[in-house]
Design a protein that fits this description.
- There is one protein chain.
- By secondary structure, this protein is mainly β.
- It has one domain (about 1-260): Porin (Beta Barrel).
- The protein is about 10% helix and about 45% strand.
- It is built from three helices and 13 strands.
- The protein has helices at about 1-20, 210-215, 220-225, and strands spanning about 20-35, 50-60, 65-80, 90-105, 110, 115-130, 135-140, 140-145, 165-180, 185-195, 205-210, 235-240, 245-260.
- Strand 9 and strand 10 (about 185-195) form a beta hairpin.
- Helix 2 runs antiparallel to helix 3 (about 220-225).
């Protein structure tokens, strides 16, 4: 709710100060995860594409650039043996993501007639703040992982529990099809470089199974390393993941229309669209 409230407040502020060059839009598509449960720690992997979508306000101060503020919702997931070939680790996760993003589109060039149809490829960059909460499937039930401290977070000698709110840097690109400077259909893919290694609850921290068991309980220990069946004979110190922070990608198709006095993708128009 706080994310939605922030979006509404900023949206009304933008409308109040720049209502002459605004577009309102929706988009839908998918989200992809890249991290410790991927085939490799970084890359664009399509074995687990989850749904995503959002709403946005776009301001067009000049033909060469547009600024966009959006509220994006998505989901990412992965599972050992499915999204990678690691059948011994036996980890899985899913998480919903709620993101507030601010980005700029740099239009590379324009093809077509402004009074008809234009094709505009672009590069984009920006930043976002997002909320996540990883869960694991355990005996058919989805268990929230952060409260369990599966890497003994908070125990003596270990890091504090990780935050469920983080920042990301955005980069990507797409193409816009602009119709009569009024309606726009877009295709976009953007990567999010996060500053957390815990989208999947898995990091490079060295963990001792007994520390997890004694400090955070048997369920946390089982979810920390499901491959351990006999703590008395097996190696109880391990690293579950690699050293790099996690990424996620969002992309899809969007539809927007320009509105307001003097509106239009190039800052020209005659008001709200009529049908």
């Amino acid at each position: 709710m706080r994310f939605l409230l922030s979006f509404c407040i900023l949206s009304f502020a933008i409308i109040g100060t720049a209502a002459q060059n605004l577009e309102l839009g929706l988009w839908g598509g998918g989200a992809i995860y890249s991290g410790d449960l991927s085939p490799q720690e970084f890359g664009l992997y399509t074995k687990s594409i989850e749904p995503a979508g959002g709403i946005f306000l776009r301001m067009n101060p000049a033909k060469a650039v547009s600024l966009e503020f959006g509220l994006n919702l998505g989901k990412i997931s992965a599972e050992d043996g499915v999204t990678n070939d690691n059948t011994s680790r036996m980890l899985n996760f899913r998480t919903n993501i709620t993101e507030l993003a601010l980005k700029a589109d740099i239009h590379l060039f324009r093809l077509g007639n402004p009074k008809g149809t234009q094709v505009v490829p672009y590069a984009m960059g920006g930043a976002s703040v997002f909320r996540f909460n990883p869960e694991a499937n355990f005996d058919g039930n989805w268990i929230e992982l952060q409260p369990l401290a599966t890497e003994a977070q908070g125990a003596p000698g270990y890091e504090d529990p990780y935050s469920l709110t983080d920042f990301a840097l955005l980069a990507g690109g797409g193409i816009k099809f602009i119709f009569k400077e009024r309606f726009t259909i877009g295709l976009e893919l953007g990567g999010r470089k996060t500053f957390t290694d815990y989208l999947d609850d898995v990091s490079a921290a060295e963990v001792n199974y007994l520390d997890v068991l004694e400090n955070t309980g048997s369920l946390a220990a089982q979810l920390s390393n499901p491959s351990i069946k006999d703590p008395e004979v097996e190696n109880l110190t391990y690293r579950r993941g690699g050293e790099y922070d996690d990424w996620f990608f969002m992309g899809g198709i969007s539809f927007s229309f320009a509105f307001g006095e003097g509106s239009g993708v190039n800052g020209r128009g005659i008001g709200c669209p009529t049908f």
